[in-house]
Write a structure and sequence with these properties.
It contains twelve helices and eight strands. With 289 residues, the chain is of the alpha/beta class. It has a single domain, classed as Alpha-Beta Barrel (TIM Barrel). It has an eight-stranded parallel barrel with strand order 1-2-3-4-5-6-7-8, surrounded by five helices. Strand 3, helix 3 and strand 4 form a beta-alpha-beta unit. Helix 1 packs across helix 2. It is globular and about 50 Å long.
Amino acid sequence: MKGLFSALMCSFDEQGNINEKGLREIVRYNIDVSKVDGLYVNGSTGENFLLSTDQKKQVFEIVKDEVGSEVKLIGQVGSLNIDEAVELAQFTTDLGYDAISAVTPFYYKFDFAEIKDYYQTILESVDNDLIIYSIPALTGVNMNLDQFAELFEHEKIIGVKFTAPDFFLLERIRHKFPEKLIYSGFDEMLLPASVLDIDGAIGSTFNLNGQRAKQIFELAQSGKNQEARAVQEVTNDLIAEILDNGLYQTIKEVLKYKGVDAGFCRKPMRALTEIEVTRANEIADKYFK
């Protein structure tokens, strides 16, 4: 389960329906061109929180059917509705996903006892491993080292997707739990995270930029930090331009420019303007000739 996982995008038509052909093409591009080690399915990048339960299941099914056993699959099943989270955990486990993941419950200010019970409830329902999805900037949930330690006591919680800039906490987790998997979640911080001996990373831009990301990770593992920094610099130039133009929409537009039927984003995300589409095409030419 080590390595680089794309936070998989999903293709939708203009009405917001899942575009199966396009989703399969995104999967193939990730495996065949971006060369990722696995896919993180139905996370934020897949617009998961804009989907119905049935749509989430459809995405899980299509991806598993397309991938088979070519790469590792992690199914993100977290939800504010605990019944949905349990249902999706069971569904992905039955499909043969290698692990499940669940974002910390958000919006309401849950205390840690409630968060712990949420994870235990999910795990009691399935025979599968779970990766915590920690993204405090979007959930408002900031867990400390002792709280991670308490969660890690559960033998089926095997690691964390750590999407936070607190590298002191990241280092402390690595130091205290060498046996747990730590995936970096910020693409622009892959190099400094890799220096702290992470096991891999899960990123949105890996849908396009997986080969560079893998270079950064492998160079850092080999102690070639200056070479890795040069690749991170190019990567961060790319990320800055994508963010300036609209994150998910621009990634999809660049994929379309590369011949992938990446489709549209679901509302309330907006479509790109003609000027922004042109800018996305320029980004594709500049970074992915």
